[in-house]
Amino acid sequence: MELFNKVSLECSKLITKRYSTSFTLGIQTLDVRLHLPIYGIYGYVRCADEIVDTFHGYDKKTLLDEFRVLTYKAIENKISTNPILHAFQLVVNEYQIDRTLIDAFLDSMEMDLYKQSYKNESYDTYIYGSAEVVGLMCLKVFCKGNESEYQHLKAPAQKLGAAFQKVNFLRDMASDFEERGRVYFPGVYYERFDAQSKRLIEADIAKDFEEAYKGILGLPREARLGVYLAYKYYIKLFNKIKNMPADSLLEARVRVPNSRKMLLLVSSYVKHRLHLI
């Protein structure tokens, strides 16, 4: 079993590396003992996201329903022949990740099968399930069973997940609408997206980042650098978006070059070593 456990977690690591260089870089700056558990979480959520976002031509609802059932079977049985589900259940059972977090995540994935636009309440529900709970799952790993520490850091972790997701929504506005027919921001119409709408969204994101930063400073030291690096990457991406006209976001996907990511890594590492974060 030890070999199967290791191989399953490494499958999740491979998925993470192929799908997100940014998150891979962030994970690699965590303490080495945290790498595989966080890969286990990311590999799982990426697979669910792919079902609803890219498995066109297949019965996505059936696939997602089966994925949900197999997830809970894996957790209850403490084993799965699917390496991604096996890796995830290892993390869930070891770090006592609440089922309510998994339910909320899968419910948000299901919303993507039907929702084309969102009102305030459904938007908040979607953000919570698609992003905030993923941050809370990772926080469970970072806190390693320290419930009081988890509760203290819970709110800022949710704000960080929300900020990341909202930046993603801005960055991906064109592809979300043109490929999937989705507009996530309440009261925003793709064809009429303008500078005022953009400023209001940006103000909301800035507040989330401000509250999230306080929590990063309180993270266990072995987790702080990796989360801070992800935070700095998204701040850089956010600043690029803020400096663009509204109509430019509807024409091209904004990116941070790999060279800039490496500079962020170096500067973040130096600050970490000097105990400045």
Question: What report would you give on this structure?
Answer:
The radius of gyration is 18 Å and the shape is globular. The protein is an all-alpha fold and 277 residues long. The chain has one domain: Farnesyl Diphosphate Synthase (Orthogonal Bundle). The relative contact order is 0.10. The chain has twelve helices and no strands. Helices cover 77% and strands 0% of the residues. α3 packs across α5 and α8 runs parallel beside α11.
Q: How many structurally independent domains? A: 1
**Main β-sheet, in a few words?**
none
**Rg, please?**
18 Å
Shape: globular
Structural class: mainly alpha
CATH architecture: Orthogonal Bundle
Bin the helical content.
over 70%
Average pLDDT level:
89
Number of helices: 12
Count of strand segments: 0
Any idea of the CATH class?
A: Mainly Alpha
Secondary-structure map:
Elements (H helix, E strand, L loop, with lengths): L1 H18 L1 H8 L3 H23 L5 H18 L5 H13 L3 H16 L5 H24 L3 H25 L1 H8 L14 H23 L3 H22 L15 H16 L4
Helix pairs in contact: 1-3, 1-5, 2-11, 3-5, 3-6, 3-7, 4-5, 4-6, 6-7, 7-8, 8-10, 8-11, 10-11, 11-12
